[in-house]
Amino acid sequence: MVAFGKKLKENQIQEWQGYYINYKLLKKKVNRYTQEIQVGAETQLYVLRDFARILDAQIEKIVLFLLEQQGVLATRLINIGKQQDYVLQNLDSFKVSELRESYRAVGQELLRLLFFVEMNAIGLRKILKKFDKRFGYRFTDYYVKTRSNHPYSQLQQVFKHVGFGAVVGAISRNLADLQDHEGNYISIYDQPAKSHPDPVIDSIKAAVNRLSNSTNFLEFLGSRAFIIQDESPTPSEDQFVEQSYHFMSLLLNLVNTFLYMVNTYIIVPTADKYSLSLGAEATVCGIIIGSMAVAQLFSSVYFSAWSNRSYLRPLVFSSVFLLLGNMLYALAYDLRSVPALLIGRLFCGLGSARAVNRRYISDCVPLKLRMQASAGFVTASALGMACGPALACLFQTKLKIYNLTFNEETLPGWIMALAWAFYLLWLWISFREPLQQTKAIVTQETSAASSSRLNSSDERLFINVSLEHRFVQPLLLKSEAENNDEDADQELDDCDHDSEESHKPVTSIVSAYRLLTPSVKVQLLVYFMLKYAMEILLAESSVITGYYFIWSTNSVAIFLACLGLTVLPVNVVVGSYVTNIFEERQLLLASQLILCLGILLSFHIVRTYSVPQYVGSALITFVSAEVLEGVNLSLLSRVMSSRLSRGTFNGGLLSTEAGTLARVIADGTITICGYLGENKLLNVTLIPSLFICISSIIATFFTYNSLY
């Protein structure tokens, strides 16, 4: 992976070269500050003030140039507008076509300006993160707090692209007006749905959305998959991925995700009754549900490592274990064995291949389709979560065949075993292993070819030098100067964490932990909290509703299915509208506060605990947790190091482990608290949820400005 400093230098617009952020200078300053503090030459206060002063100057340079270029574009639009008035009066179709091209040319210039702003914004974020990491300060928090909220803020210009909207609006409106130059114009303000956007407008909108972190439903849904992307995959890498892309293999990964989520939640409505039928307490359902999560803590690691070499084999292994686990879960009823029941669920957890599913999307789906695939991953999970409890409603039968019992407790196991058997057959027939080894061979051949061309080039250079010695000296001087400059750059890169070495995937959990900044740790805490709260709500629902409201299995299943069905509508509203109005960090804090309110409303305080109170508080808790999960994972993918985008110990694995650990602890809490009695179960299990939620809110306040 190319270091950002080199990428910035390569992608600069040459005529604007002097107005970019001086990333090289800032890196030198950071390195010099490090040396000065180590020898005691400067104080921390001086370093903070000096670096802030340099950053202010850099941002001012960028913003003033940005305003100048916006003025140039505005002047061009005014001049084109004057021509437009004359042309439309005379209805000259040739001139109308020229006007359109003029507006498109301004649009192309605006795209260049947006790219200029984006590169500078990335550079600013990187240097702030680098400074904090190098010195252990909370400089980003201080800098953003003092600059972004100031009435004369220049930081807003860089991160919020103030002023671009007017230019985009002018280009969009006039291009729409010119679509029909006979007088029947469609205004983008009066009838936006009927206007036909120009391709350049689509490109501008995409660039603005990317710059402002605006999102739509698909992007918001995809962000919940938490598939961290490399900052800038090379064209050759993406071309290789596109050539080896296989839709059926992707579909099989999504089906695996769906079936696993069904497998997880299909037993929730009947787990307490299954425990009672085997002579155990109803609250043992916490262990039954949680044993799958316990095994998943370990399976996620070895599946993530296994996917470095293959995708088919871990998926086959997963399917076999899930097939055996579900059969053992169903047979436990006739064996009258709680251990067999738990071992069956452990086997199911050992077959959790979600790490493989995520990894396949990240590595084997082309960049242009990756967001859709990520959204498909989340949709499959949501549908599985809803279908699991819903299927439990259908198993209201009881019969025996060859001494095997088929009833509402065992049918979830038998049905899922059958589903995994069919899936295993489909997987074996249709899955195509990505060409990972071929990629390595191609890379080696390319390197060899490059080396060969370099050698032949050196030979020709030697011949030319021998023949025309008198022209060599100036070239050598120039080359030497360039080499010295490159050596200086290389020396700077070697002592910096943005070098190619620092972008390699981490190889141990310790290395991964060292890359976790305070912002990342807080976001992982938030993820842990929301998963804990959701697991408490879902896993104890059958016990709570049975104790307070005497609900049947069907009622519990319908209740859980309805909760699961809220996932997609909520994501539509949040992804399409809410995230375009508020910042993600604002939504993060607001959804945590609402989640805290839902937990508080769930407590049994008054004498009568009613169905509306339970259902209403559960709905608030679940929906706010769903919103929080999307925003949290979106922010987490932004603040987490790009080194965690690939390899065994990737960001997806860390978030999965955090969420799975939360589920394990929540399920264990239910079982332990169950010994206090079912009448105390609700309040006692909600206390840890409330404590963790308040802790995460406080932690979010402390890192709020670092999420700018």
UniProtKB/TrEMBL annotation:
A Pfam family this chain is assigned to: SPX
Keywords of this entry: Membrane, Transmembrane, Transmembrane helix
Transmembrane listed as a keyword: yes
Subcellular location per the Swiss-Prot or TrEMBL entry: Membrane
Membrane topology category: Multi-pass membrane protein
Gene Ontology CC terms: membrane
Superkingdom to which the source organism belongs: Eukaryota
Molecular-function GO terms, alphabetical: transmembrane transporter activity
UniProt cross-references to PROSITE patterns, sorted A to Z: SPX
SPX domain mapped to chain residues: 2-145
InterPro entries hit by this protein: MFS (IPR011701), MFS_Domain-Containing_Protein (IPR051068), MFS_trans_sf (IPR036259), SPX_dom (IPR004331), SPXM_SPX_plant (IPR045264)
Signal sequence bounds: none
Bilayer-crossing regions: 250-268, 280-303, 315-332, 377-399, 411-429, 524-550, 556-575, 587-606, 618-636, 681-704
UniProt similarity note: Belongs to the major facilitator superfamily.
Name the record gives this protein: SPX domain-containing protein
Organism, as annotated: Erythroxylum novogranatense
